[in-house]
Design a protein that fits this description.
Structural class: alpha/beta
Radius of gyration: 22 Å
CATH topology: TIM Barrel
CATH architecture: Alpha-Beta Barrel
Number of domains: 1
CATH class: Alpha Beta
Strand content: 5-15%
Number of helices: 13
Shape: globular
CATH superfamily: Aldolase class I
Length: about 375
């Protein structure tokens, strides 16, 4: 059903007031899914209009889009979207910052440790000396990523495992906010064989120290770039220091669409939200900023790749990984990160007079407030 915006608001205001333990009927769930679909379609129409205005837009096998030289497209993203997926290696359970967009916001002091001398890979625990065994018994990944809070809290523990994967010819990239990096540690990472390092400039508010560390990293690590959630704060900070950032020698910027979970949702209360394919929940502003960045990069010839790492990209990532694992047609683990849909989070977009549904029809009999027999 193409529910009207007025009816959608009426029903979601009702659902938002229900006790958490109250389950919706099948007919109420139909209404919920109809509302989510209307919001999603209107959001995608807005994004499509912005995409159409980006000159020189390129596609990575229909799985993501970007502008810039193909040679600078990050190898980690190519592995993620076209290879064997994003194989995460986790070690550090601490961070030196608290960011409002962090998926672990509010629980940073409660992240369980991986274990002394151990790394978590694919849900298992391994020591460095186990890597040859792992590679000899399982299919070698096209790439791996070092994630999980801030690796530079104990970066010296990473050098050995990086050397092990380097010897196996596996592409490796690492995420950091960059504040704790030094020339010594960046050199050590390069010597160990790290292929790519990604700085979350949004975490440090585009700090001069981090921009300088990006420049230093370029002397030791083949591919240096930025990956950060797209927020208004980041866009404002980046715009003030754009020339400084672009002169640092980076090869790419991954514009990550911010998606929210129960930890960080309240930090963005009041923002207009949409849900992509009943999975990731995101504020509309995030992808709009991404596409604005792509357009500016193309028009101003920034000389780097700017990549739209959107919810659609992450949807494609999971489809690719499931297929390579031998999953059936349509198999995916992409889904919603909320046990119960946060109905109140969608009220701002339904209140927004400038956000219009593409089509609207009256509710059929049995779905209107006051109809008996179903509600």
């Amino acid at each position: 059903m193409d529910i009207s915006k007025k009816d959608a608001l009426l029903w979601f205001e009702f659902f938002a007031q229900l006790p958490e333990e109250e389950e919706l009927t099948n007919w109420q769930q139909e209404i919920v899914l109809a509302v989510l679909s209307q919001i999603e379609e209107a959001a995608e129409a807005r994004f499509d209009e912005l995409l159409a205005g980006i000159p020189g837009l390129k596609s990575l096998d229909g799985r993501s889009c970007y502008v810039g030289d193909d040679a600078d497209f990050p190898g980690g993203c190519r592995s993620c979207l076209c290879g064997t997926g994003l194989s995460a290696v986790r070690k550090t359970n601490r961070c030196n910052l608290t960011c409002r967009f962090c998926y672990n916001y509010g629980e940073l002091d409660n992240i369980p440790p991986v274990g002394e001398g151990l790394f978590e890979i694919g849900g298992g625990k391994y020591r460095e000396r186990d890597i040859p065994l792992l590679l000899s018994t399982q299919r070698k990944p096209t790439g791996i990523s070092y994630v999980y809070l801030e690796p530079f809290m104990e970066i010296e523990k990473y050098y050995g495992i990086i050397r092990a994967f380097r010897q196996a010819g596996v592409h490796q990239h690492l995420y950091t906010n960059g504040l704790l990096a030094t020339e010594e540690t960046l050199r050590a990472l390069g010597e160990a064989g790290l292929d790519e390092i990604r700085f979350n400039l949004g975490a440090s508010r585009c700090a001069d120290r981090v921009i300088e560390n990006m420049r230093i990293a370029g002397r030791h690590i083949p591919s240096v770039g930025v990956e950060t959630p797209m927020t208004p704060e980041f866009y404002a900070d980046f715009s003030r220091k754009k020339e400084q950032v672009l002169r640092s020698g980076i090869r790419f910027i991954n514009c990550a669409e911010l998606h929210l979970n129960p930890n960080n949702l309240d930090n963005y209360a009041g923002e207009a939200m949409y849900m992509y394919r009943q999975g990731y929940l995101s504020p509309l502003f995030s992808r709009e900023i991404s596409l604005k960045m792509l357009k500016e990069a193309a028009l101003e010839n920034w000389g780097i790749v700017v990549h739209d790492c959107s919810n659609r990209t992450k949807f494609a990532r999971d489809l690719n990984l499931r297929a390579r694992e031998g999953g059936w047609f349509g198999a995916t683990s992409y889904g919603c990160e909320f046990d119960r849909l946060p109905y109140a989070a969608f009220l701002p977009v339904l209140w927004d007079e400038n956000f219009r549904f593409l089509r609207e029809d009256p509710l059929p009999e049995g779905y209107r407030p006051g109809d008996t027999g179903r509600f």
